[in-house]
Amino acid sequence: MNNSFGRIPWLGVLAVVTMLPGCDSVDPPAFRMNMVEAVSYETAPEYQQEIADVLAALFGTPDEPFALPATGLDQVMLNRSAGPAWSDEAGYNYGLYRKHCVHCHGITGDGRGPTAMFLNPYPRDYRPGVYKFKSTYNPAKPTDDDLHRVLINGVPGTAMPSFSLLPGSEVESLVEYVKYLSYRGEMETKLIQYVFDELGVMEKLDDEGNEIIDANGDPVMERIPFDPTNDPDQREAVMDLLAEVVDAWDGANEMIIAPTEDSIPAEKRSPEELLASIEKGRSLFFDKDKGNCYSCHGPTGLGDGQQDDYNNWQKAHKKFLDETAKLAEKDELDDLEASLLDDREEVAESLYPLRNAIPRNLRQGVYRGGRRKLDIFRRIYAGIAGTPMPGGGPSAPGAKAGALTEEEMWNIVDYVYSLPYEPASQPQVVTPKYTQSITN
Amino acid sequence: MLYKPSRAALLLALLAVGVTGCQRADELGPIASASASNTIREALTAGGDSSSSGGAVAATGTGWATLKGRFVFDGTPPQMQPYNVNKDMATCAPGGQAPLQENILVDDASKGLANVAIYVRKVSRVHESAESTDSNQPFDQKECVFLSHVYPFVLGGPMIIKNSDPVGHNTNISGKNGFNQTVGANGETEHLPQKEEAVPVDVTCSIHPWMKCYFLPRENGYVAVTEPDGSFEISNLPAGENLEFQVWHESATGPGRALVLDTPTAKELKWSGKGRFKVNLAEDEEKVLEISVPAAALGG
Fold first, then answer.
1. Is A440 among the domain residues?
2. Most B CBs within 10 Å: which of A131, A132, A292, as the mutation test of the B interface?
3. Higher pLDDT, residue A289 or B130
């Protein structure tokens, strides 16, 4: 008994000490830097801090988002989406992003939430501002309606569920917040590039713009801080970069692909007309000179053609890993290179395993970007942004025709739509060996 | 007695909690400072300051000048391996010979280094011969090789993308002027690039994944890519101002593949860790540079 009493202070100390630091007292969630970009551009720690501060000035924090009027983002919607999840007495929900999205897409929208590594495909990293399933030309941004559609329908065949049961105002707030995370992520990369391109340790200049020379005859070097507060040129540069980001998003509605009326197949076609169109689509699908679809989607349409390419998100990581490996192989590293290699290896270790972009299996009838014929048409017309899938239409409004006419693209739509219904796509009928015992 | 934990075990558990804490360990990078960001936000929202020069370069001279020269490889040139051609063999590996990679091309006789991009970062004045144009060379591909391994482009008009092969290609351009369209056999298509890039960006073909080249759109024609003998020439440069040149090579180990050099010539030019150097040319001057590139600068 003495023994067990003697234990109590220990248990007490353990309980108290565990509770003191606890897990509730950790700092509030913070946006984290895109380290692949920062380390690729050899961004010094001082600059990393300054970039983080400028980003927080422009966009706030995960608990207190902020949008400059120049962004056109709706502050009220951002406030509703950000911060911890809670509901007021009237049942109005707040902290929507953290309630519905963060576990996959992560606080920063980097697609690195706690569950992300276990999903295939990985959740989207919003930071490059590239979205696959949209109504616009390949390099253009998605429209609000496009993002809305993805939230309502989910992405079939992936872990992304439908949020159609949320009230409309909540979905709209989330669309705004996803755009906000993209603006922030794009801006981060632009600032990292700006700091690399324009700042750094440079020759100190006098008021006339001439180098200052020290006693040894060498130019005096100084680090130019990234400090928009005190440097009007930097301030203007930051606002110009922000305008570039915002303009691209604002222009999305002018980049929507609208098929010409004449090319759209009639609503009621005879079986013969449909078959003829499917047949044309099939020959284009296998035509090396024109559609060339089979080259990636495979002679069977199972997605078993070209399978060793990567999407752009993975390509960026692959490039980073390759360059890191190349540096590690180098015979002699100077101090700068050695510390750079340390930084690179630390970031490389944090990346998820690389995955190839596998062309879609077209025999399943599962279409990630939506199953309307218009959706498939736009996939063929513009390709899929950020992936190896190329477009067959003109590359931009006003550009010359692409490899396929609109009519040919509709033919391919018909063929793609027919693939899941071909006998080869159906589950194979197995004749039970022991029919007798089953029927009895 | 059954549940009695040893004091040592308790202590260990305590230490473990204390040491690991609750934070995830893979979070890298800085966290913004609230006070610093508030100050910056105030400055950014305070409105424009008209005294800003907007980063433009002030014209300080008159007349025009030329920079030319050669990049020469110093070391044993690496043997280029054939591309891993695995489809469309008749077109892409004619006679069973896959084309050789081009990541370090050195001329046997002159040791000249090809495919070095050299271009001016900013200028105050542009000569009419270097102004934006709509007469760029077409971008072409044959035998599943991009014909220009580094393709400079002066913004202003459409970029014609040709396919001189009897098989279909797709041209996938990364960077600020994203493009990914199929180009039919012996066909052509059109891209409308709008934005300058600071360094060349990747161009690939998803159908033939070994195909690779680089695209460098610039706002003016002060850009050159070295010829097979390593030579380059940029003429009609504005004289009398500090011109900063960026030098880039596919295999260079500098940031963004900037070519970083530490040779005596480079030191004379104050070559920077970002692969840049500055010159100030006199009117009608023709400056000639002979730049040696040690194998180590290309990861050798």
1. no
2. A292
3. B130
| Domain boundary assignment for chain B | 65-131+220-300, 132-217
Minimal Cα distance from B191: which residue of A? A395
Residue B209, pLDDT > 60, answer yes
Task: From chain B, pick out residues whose CB is under 8 angstroms from the CB of A137.
Answer: none
- Token digits of residue A317: 């990581």
Q: Tell me whether strands B64-74 and B286-294 are parallel, antiparallel or unpaired.
A: parallel
Check residue B5 and give its pLDDT. Answer: 53
Yes or no, beta carbons of A229 and B158 under 8 Å apart: no
- Tell whether A149 is covered by a domain: yes
- The pLDDT tens digits for A46-73 are 999 999 999 999 999 999 999 999 999 9
Q: How far is A14 from chain B (nearest CA, A)?
A: 6
Q: Are residues A335 and A380 in the same domain?
A: no
The answer for residues whose C-beta is within 8 angstroms of residue B230's C-beta and 6 or more apart is B70, B71, B72, B73, B107, B110, B111, B112, B113, B114, B116
- Among B6, B31, B160, most A C-beta atoms within 10 A, so best to mutate, is B31
Residues A110 and A172 grouped into a single domain: yes
Say if residue A81 is in the same domain as residue A126: yes
Q: How far is A191 from chain B (nearest CA, A)?
A: 14
Q: Looking at the structure, do residues A402 and A320 belong to the same domain, yes or no? A: no
For residue B251, give every residue at least 6 positions away whose Cβ sits within 8 Å of its Cβ, in sequence order, or none: B103, B104, B257, B298, B299
Q: Is some CB atom of chain A closer than 8 A to the CB atom of B94?
A: no
Q: How do residues B78-133 score in pLDDT, each as one tens digit?
A: 999 999 998 889 999 998 899 999 999 999 999 999 999 999 999 999 999 998 87
Between A140-144, A413-417, B5-9, B257-261, the lowest mean confidence (pLDDT) is in B5-9
Check whether residue A137 and residue A286 sit in a common domain: no
What is the residue whose two structure tokens read 């993002």? A147
Q: Give pLDDT tens digits for B141-154.
A: 999 999 999 999 99
Give the distance from CA B102 to its chain's centroid.
15
Intrachain domains B65-131+220-300 and B132-217 with the same fold: yes
Region of residue B256 (phi > 0: left; psi between -120 and 50: alpha; otherwise: beta): left
CATH number at residue A395: 1.10.760.10
Domain count, chain A: 3
Same domain, A234 and A184: yes
Classify residue A200: in a domain, yes or no: yes
Q: A337 and A389: one domain?
A: no
In-domain check, residue A439: no
The yes or no reply on domain B65-131+220-300 and CATH 1.10.10.10 is no
> Is it the case that residue A19 has pLDDT exceeding 60?
no
In the prediction, which pLDDT does A1 show? Answer: 42
Band of residue A436 on the pLDDT scale cut at 50, 70, 90: low
Rounded Cα gap, residues B256 and B117, in angstroms: 13
Same domain flag for A185 and A299: no
Query: Which range (A266-270, B37-41, B47-51, B263-267) has the least confidence?
Result: B47-51
Listed in sequence order, the residues at least 6 apart from B110 whose beta carbon sits closer than 8 Å to its beta carbon are: B70, B72, B229, B230
Rounded to the nearest angstrom, the minimum Cα separation between B232 and chain A is: 24
Determine the residue type at A419. L
Tell me the pLDDT of chain B averaged across its residues.
Answer: 88
Q: How far is residue B300's CA from residue B297's CA, in Å, rounded to a whole number?
A: 7
Q: Which of B3, B40, B50, B190 to mutate to test the interface with A (most CBs of A within 10 A)?
A: B40
CATH 2.60.40.420 fits B132-217, yes or no: yes
The mean pLDDT of A383-396, rounded to a whole number, is 95
Q: Report the gap between the CA of A56 and the closest CA in chain B (Å).
A: 6
What is the C-alpha separation between B58 and B253, in angstroms, rounded?
Answer: 33
| Residue-number span of the structural domain to which A287 is assigned | 273-306+357-425
